[in-house]
Amino acid sequence: MKLLAFASVCALAASAASGAYFSDFEADDGGLIGTNDWEWGMPVGFDGAPYGGAEPIGGYSGDYCWGTVIGGAHSPSTISTLTLAGQNLDLAETLSFWEYSESGGNTFDTAKVFVGGTEVYLSDGNSGLAWREVVLDLTGFSGTGDIVFEFSTTSVVERVGWYIDDLCVTDIPAPGTIALFGIAGLAIRRRR
Ligand SMILES: [Ca+2]
């Protein structure tokens, strides 16, 4: 129930405000471009032993997500980027996503998010073998920019890596949009 509420809020935001975005990656890859280890697919719980824990089984929502090698460990000495290109940042308010981070820390292998070339997030590399939500403030950005998830690895200890699901960019609501959200929310509640 909580998941449906979250997805609905993001989907509404994405449809009602120009430049906003949401994908749960179930129907398709969300239009993201992955290099090297990043793959769109259905994780199968690949066992990361002896270096670390297992990858998730499925995504945070449903079956599909993006991950640094689906069904296996990440590669050594590789920089892999996952890009949501050309976002209008003028009205952007938040960037949110769910991550499953299993790379052991943030000293050797690093999992970072860049917006318009600026680093906005460095994961601690350990979400405790569970999905967790990350919400980042985009209000200081303007113009058009890419949102990039960069996973960089060293030559030692290959673990299952980084998995991303339910990626959402919300815009600051334009005047009148809040009322539309209210009507839509009411309609959803009545259908239950
Ligand atoms: Ca999903």
User: How many discrete structural domains?
Assistant: 1
From the N-terminal CA to the C-terminal CA, the straight-line distance is 11 Å
User: Looking at the structure, what is the overall shape?
Assistant: globular
Strand content: 35-45%
In short:
This protein is an alpha+beta fold and 192 residues long. The chain has helices at residues 2-16, 177-191; strands at 21-23, 33-34, 38-41, 65-68, 79-88, 92-102, 110-115, 118-122, 132-137, 144-152, 161-171.
Account of the 3D structure:
The chain has 192 residues and is of the alpha+beta class. The chain has one domain (2-191): Jelly Rolls (Sandwich). It has two helices and eleven strands, in the order H-E-E-E-E-E-E-E-E-E-E-E-H. The protein has helices at 2-16, 177-191, and strands at 21-23, 33-34, 38-41, 65-68, 79-88, 92-102, 110-115, 118-122, 132-137, 144-152, 161-171. Strand 7 and strand 8 form a beta hairpin. The longest helix has 15 residues, at 2-16. The protein is globular, with a radius of gyration of 17 Å. The termini are close together.
Topology:
Layout lengths: L1 H15 L4 E3 L9 E2 L3 E4 L23 E4 L10 E10 L3 E11 L7 E6 L2 E5 L9 E6 L6 E9 L8 E11 L5 H15 L1
Antiparallel strand pairs: 1-11, 2-5, 3-4, 4-11, 5-10, 6-9, 6-11, 7-8, 7-10
Bound molecules: calcium ion.
Calcium ion (CA) binds next to loops.
Notable characteristics:
six-stranded antiparallel β-sheet, alpha+beta, binds calcium ion, 192 residues, five-stranded antiparallel β-sheet, 2 helices, Jelly Rolls
